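pasting for ref
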Amino acid sequence: MPTRKVHSALLLPPLLVAAAVSAPLELVNELVRVPSGESRSVQVVLKQQPAMVSAEYEVAGGGPEVRLVLLRRGDLERPGNGLPESVLAATAPATAGRLAYAAPLRGVLTVVLDNPTGSQAAAVHLHVFLDFAKANPGPQVSRLSTQRQVTVIALSFVVFFAIVTYTARRLLRGIRQ
């Protein structure tokens, strides 16, 4: 019996595709300077499909506490003091934090770093990324009603025993001849 050699180079492209599909897409990974009493924002544009929008921050060098807020772009542009009521996700003021939001639709979201009460400017390391695999894990699993479960089981038994009977008859007929 001949043996086949599987070259590892042939397996590499499918593995790379699988890794690329499931890997988060990094949008921002930088140090942002937020002056006292002000905020800085980053736009997140979802054009293709829903995604899990995740953001992490850490204040560098023991600076003031800041908060991270996620909202729609239009909500940020409305006039008024403070943040709008339609905040999608937010952290409490702290020196580090993270948030995640499953954005169900395409559109433009804004990640805001806010330094509302700090007496000094904050240097914040901000990391924003998208994960398309986590946003849409697949179809929701449902359960059949009891009546349908019984019907499926009964039909399975009927088909199984019909196959067994047919096979047994053919084998017995073959043995007798």
